[in-house]
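Progress narrative, Year 2. Work on Immunity protein from Xenorhabdus mauleonii advanced from sequence curation to structure prediction during this period.
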Amino acid sequence: MSMMKLIIENESVEDVMMLFALTASYRSLDRMYTDYKFEVVARRELLFTYKRLISEGKLMENEEGKTIKGPNWVAPDFVKTGKYDAIYEEYLREKSNK
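Result:
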């Protein structure tokens, strides 16, 4: 199972957006949710959450339209606690052994 799939299936939409919207386009996130947790896309929760995070100042868009950290951005708990660090390290080990 990919780490992204694991995170999408187990973390809140807000937490996923707070981290991955900084490096992936909205369209990419939409595709990932379509693949791994379609009900979020079907209920338009992804879009509503993104708009809410922008309005709350947690995320912003720069002049090029890229999503950046807003003044109220905070790292998601799963990042602060290192919840997926061991899985990521195992992935890197496996990749280096190939």
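Helices lie at 3-10, 13-20, 26-36, 38-42, 45-55, 77-80, 85-96. The beta strands are 59-61, 67-69.
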